[in-house]
Amino acid sequence: GAASKGSYRHFMLKEIHEQPAVIAAALEGRLGDHGVLVESFGPEAAELFARVKQVHIVACGTSYHAGMVARYWLERYTGVPVQVEVASEYRYRQVVVPEGTLFVTLSQSGETADTLAALRFARERGYLASLAICNVPGSSLVRESDLTLMTQAGPEIGVASTKAFTTQLTALMLLTLALGRIKGLAAAEQSALVEALRGLPGLVDRVLALDGMVETLSGAFAEKHHALFLGRGAHFPIALEGALKLKEISYIHAEAYPAGELKHGPLALVDSEMPVISVAPNDELLDKLKSNLQEVRARGGELFVFADEGVGLSDGEGVHVLHLPHVHEALAPILYTVPLQLLSYHVAVLKGTDVDQPRNLAKSVTVE
Ligand code: G6P
């Protein structure tokens, strides 16, 4: 049944490997030839989206990281200003809600206490409408929101969220395209993104095939006490998510920084005992990232770089490069999540922790 590990050693590993199928499920019936079918968000979505002037996104944990990625996408492709906040902060401050603001919650479970309380708080604040992007049909969040988009990831058992995150990102790209369509995103850009989305499950499959190589890299982490994750742009939240996964299941202290902030503090911590993991897709920030990586090498830090096959980075003294297939720049955050999931999984297995049920953590935090 759904709650069986099959041939996998852990639910987390099974859920990581389900990603090509569940990303395909999240896209199923929602893409037209040239754009997203806006009615996927509900019958009133087209009319409501036309009135959206701002977006506020609220979530917790891994779901919050998905929201952070969406800010880059929505501002880039729709021109709509976006704020993203953790629910436990949002619900206790005097939020200013400009006219025409769409309130978006992200949640795997749909039962996270802070996220649900944020939605109830938001209802009194004059938002245009609320949209829940959620994985559990009939959950409280889904029942109480005006619009919903289900992520279609299926049951997620591992406490450390994997497939729920990549399907949330897929759903958020659908939201970006739906809003973009209404806000005048060029037809050619819409078509290119739709085509890239259709190719995404196949690319995730190809990244999963690199599992053995990621496992080899994981050996360098098992004896370490700290790790630093770097990313720029939409890959900063992916670095945050990579660090969160490592913390959650291997209990190694991990931090994430936008690479440009390295010299404002974390560089002081870098030495041979502090591995540095970086995601380096082939985007406009690559050259800047390369110089950040040199700063790390100059301090003796061992570097692990996940990079596009075309970026011209290669293995060297203290530098380990794992090449990923080329992907549309916008979808790189989804693809680059996968090796970071595999890395933390293998480090945890080496350390012998309880991968699916890490200490002190719960799958769904339904009390404050
Ligand atoms: C807990 C889980 C995380 C999850 C977070 C938010 O902390 O351990 O994996 O990201 O809650 O949960 P939600 O169900 O709202 O996405």
Structure, explained:
The two termini are 32 Å apart. The longest helix has 22 residues, at 187-208. The protein contains 13 helices and 10 strands. 43% of the residues lie in helices and 15% in strands. The strands form 2 sheets. The chain has a 5-stranded parallel beta sheet with strand order 2-1-3-4-5, sandwiched between helices. Strand 1, helix 4 (61-78) and strand 2 form a beta-alpha-beta unit. With 368 residues, the chain is of the alpha/beta class. The model has no long low-confidence stretch (mean pLDDT 94). Helix 4 runs parallel beside helix 8 (163-182) and helix 9 (187-208) runs parallel beside helix 13. The chain binds 6-O-phosphono-alpha-D-glucopyranose (G6P). Residues 60-63, 107-109, 112, 115, 159, 161, 361, 363-365 line the site of 6-O-phosphono-alpha-D-glucopyranose.
Helix fraction bin = 40-55%
Bound molecules: 6-O-phosphono-alpha-D-glucopyranose
Average residue-wise pLDDT: 94
Biggest sheet details: 5 strands, parallel
Q: State the distance separating the first and last CA atoms.
A: 32 Å
**Helical element count?**
13
Which strand-content bin applies to the residues? 15-25%
Helix- and strand-based class?
alpha/beta
Q: Overall 3D geometry?
A: globular
The ordered H/E elements are HHHEHEHEHEHEHHHEHEEHEEH
Could you tell me the radius of gyration in angstroms?
Answer: 20 Å
What is the chains' assembly state? Answer: single chain
Low-confidence stretches: none
